[in-house]
Write a structure and sequence with these properties.
24 strands; about 35% helix; EC 1.2.1.3; Aldehyde Dehydrogenase, Chain A, domain 2; Ald_DH/histidinol_DH; single chain; Aldehyde Dehydrogenase, Chain A, domain 1; alpha/beta; Ald_DH_CS_GLU; 15 helices; about 500 residues; 2 domains; 6-stranded mixed beta sheet; Aldehyde_DH_dom; aldehyde dehydrogenase (NAD+) activity; binds nicotinamide-adenine-dinucleotide; 7-stranded mixed beta sheet
């Protein structure tokens, strides 16, 4: 079955212009809107170009086109779908520097982290294209064969946050298409640019209606989650919004995958190299200015593995090394260079938007109100962008906001502990369960502690080593289900059991 892309003759296509004309795509065509809006570059608050604001009629049109496209796309043999998906990855790769620069200007992250996110966005597509979902033979005897297989669900709506606009888009597009679904991508209104260009580029590889985009305001998400024609929601965002998504999706029993917030602890035992571990822990606590991160080191040593990190949000350090650890942590944090991510030498960019900036500021207000001790940082200096000085709070009370809530900005609490049992109990004392890490030279202790932590992802002597081949998801209120890896692909499928009876029914 030959795949007929929405935009034909791609071999002769001119390169996609990533700097102008941000459009939404419905049924393979540009779908202009009467209203437009724009994002801001968070480093200087300059307006970025206009993007469409979708109407409810646009949602209806996209869902109708998706349903029609699903009829044929779901029947395209897997190997052909995979070939098209890999060709799409190659096309993104050819534009990687342009996508990287667009990401910096809309999201604010510094060059090395933007490089890493862009590379991961591409390698995640390729990685997931290497995962097979074979039929499982459950039973085979003279009477019958029983098989389970995975069938596509239908129309997927991908709802994406502002912290990883590129990776979290391809991380949903690839598995949806590989498993035979069609997808409507809704980027965050704060960071719509990379997502819209990814979908425009996809028209050169996929038939009309297979990959569509809708760009809108705060109405758009609820329109998608409540639309009876949408079959599955793949959502990444905050826990509060995730609960709304699930409530809305329940009306038509849509499938949901929810990747939500976290409050990740690091547990540092006394046998570590204090300076080396303080440097790493600081790195994982503050990268992407506390808004989830990708490290600055070259990541893609192997094609399919990469290291991405979400932030450490609570730092538990054994009391016997607390003072030297604090001094080392402060030294490393104070060496960071804060500024416009597009400039070389900048290690930390701004937070992404005014809403987040105002929220993080409330934690800084609490420093004085609650009498928290500051180990470093502690003030927000006036600047043209959403910049916040990386801040460490020295042993705040265990029930303070800074310990209990996810600030999602560059401010972390440094805490002490005495015994292994106590720190496990405190690390688990949260309704979040995204990740956790254990830092020690005693690997048997590390393994013992790791197995008692309640989170979807546990690391030893690192934080947030990820792979497109491994499932990623949260426990408790950090999410439902997982994305990536074989489990992630299965989340885009229904399970079908076939009972193949070998006896022909005859009259008795
Ligand atoms: P958010 O929940 O405010 O928004 C996420 C997306 O949902 C956006 O596209 C937004 O427009 C849309 N949305 C908002 N209200 C909606 C509604 N009622 N129905 C449907 N869609 C709606 O989150 P954010 O502020 O963009 O992102 C930050 C949050 O995302 C943090 O809490 C962070 O921890 C979480 N996050 C989790 C992961 C993970 O993998 N678990 C990864 C990245 C970010």
């Amino acid at each position: 079955m030959a795949i007929k892309p929405a935009v034909n003759g791609c071999a002769n296509c001119s390169p996609l212009d990533l700097n102008n004309n941000y459009v939404q795509i419905i049924n393979g065509k540009v779908a202009p809107t009467a209203q437009t809006r724009h994002g801001l570059n968070p480093a200087n608050l300059k307006p970025k170009p206009e993007v469409p604001v979708a109407t409810e009629a646009d949602v209806d049109a996209a869902v109708a086109a998706a349903k029609e496209a699903f009829k044929t796309w779901s029947k395209v043999p897997y190997e052909e779908r995979r070939k098209a998906v890999l060709a799409y990855a190659d096309a993104i790769d050819q534009l990687r520097t342009e996508f990287r620069d667009l990401l910096i200007s809309e999201q604010g992250k510094p060059i090395p982290q933007a490089d890493s996110e862009t590379d991961c966005a591409i390698s995640w597509i390729r990685g997931m294209a290497d995962i097979k979902l074979p039929e499982d033979l459950i039973e085979e005897n003279e009477h019958r064969t029983v098989i389970t297989r995975h069938t596509p669900i239908g129309v997927v709506a991908a709802i994406i946050p502002w912290n990883f606009p590129l990776l979290l888009a391809t991380g949903k597009i690839a598995p949806a298409l590989l498993t035979g679904n069609v997808i409507i991508v809704k980027p965050s209104p704060f960071t719509p640019y990379c997502g819209l260009k990814l979908v425009e580029l996809a028209q050169r590889f996929f038939p009309p209606g297979v990959v569509q985009s809708l760009s809108g305001d705060d109405n758009l998400g609820p329109w998608l989650t409540s639309h009876p024609g949408v079959d599955k929601i793949s959502f990444t965002g905050s826990t509060t919004t995730g609960k709304r998504v699930m409530e809305s999706a329940s009306k038509t029993l849509k499938r949901v995958t929810l990747e939500l917030g976290g409050n990740d602890p690091a547990i540092v035992f006394p046998d570590v190299d204090v300076d080396a571990v303080a440097q790493k822990v600081a790195f994982y606590a503050f990268l992407n200015s506390g808004q989830v991160c990708i490290p600055t080191t070259p990541l893609l040593t192997a094609r399919l593995t990469a290291q991405i990190c979400l932030n450490l949000k609570r730092l538990y350090v054994h009391e016997s090394i607390y003072e030297p650890f604090k001094a080392a942590l402060v030294k490393h944090v104070q060496s960071y260079t804060l500024g416009d991510g597009s400039q070389p030498g900048i290690s930390h960019g701004p937070v992404q938007n005014s809403m987040q900036f105002e929220r993080v500021k409330t934690f800084f207000d609490d420093i004085e109100k609650q009498g928290w001790k500051v180990a470093c940082g502690g003030k927000i200096e006036p600047s043209p962008g959403y910049f916040i000085t990386p801040t460490v709070i020295d042993r705040p009370p265990e029930d303070s906001r800074i310990v209990v809530e996810e600030p999602f900005g560059p401010i972390v609490p440094l805490l002490t502990f005495t015994t292994e049992e106590e720190v496990i109990e405190r690390a688990n004392n949260t309704n979040m369960g995204l990740g956790a890490s254990v830092w020690t030279n005693d690997l048997s202790r590390a393994s013992r502690v790791a197995r008692q932590l309640q989170a979807g992802n546990i690391w030893i002597n690192t934080h947030f080593d990820l792979s497109p081949m491994a499932p990623f998801g949260g426990h408790k209120e950090s999410g439902i289900g997982s994305e990536w890896g074989a489990n992630g692909l299965k989340a885009f499928c229904n399970v079908q059991t076939l009972f193949l009876n070998k006896k022909v029914v005859t009259a008795a």
